Amino acid sequence: MMSFVHVSTAVEWLFVCLSLIFIHECGRYWMGRYVGIPASRIRICMWAFPQHVALLGEEGWISPLSHRKFTEELRRHVPSRSKVVLFVGGGLVTGSLFIWVICPLLLFFHYPLWASKFFYLSVQIHIVYFILETSVACLLRRSVGDFSALWVISKKAYFWTLSIVLLCHGAIWFLLHPPKILPS
What we know:
The radius of gyration is 18 Å and the shape is globular. The longest helix is centred in the first third of the chain and has 31 residues. The protein contains six helices and three strands; from the N terminus they run αβββααααα. Helix 1 packs across helix 4, helix 3 runs antiparallel to helix 4 and helix 5 crosses helix 6. It starts with a helix and ends in an 8-residue tail after the last helix.
């Protein structure tokens, strides 16, 4: 039988997970708006799986899973390659910056357990996403998500985005695990 503690812990992890996904999708949405996609042509689909930002095409809402249609619709609104890079990397960068901000705030207000939950779940999501996406992209020989799309569009943007993700998470790692200074 599950106790209240187990249920509340599961609910906390679910809250953290959905928060991280929502921030990621908001980053994509905000970048989409920034690069020129009209608000009436873009929306966040949080209750679909996988969660995503959809674009409105001639025949209705298009998920990124419909790769060709989604890319065509994106190019209609965002013809610039550099702006496509911003759109694709927007979720990864926003999510990483969120971790970089929320964890120190939670620590400052004496919620180290919540800071750890946000940090570790974010790291786990990025690692699993990166490994699965890279594997599937290699099998299909085409981009299937954020990391592989950035690789196809611009290797430089891929490395910059990956660097931001790693630097933000690395900084929080050292904040959560300060080095022990040896006595002299």
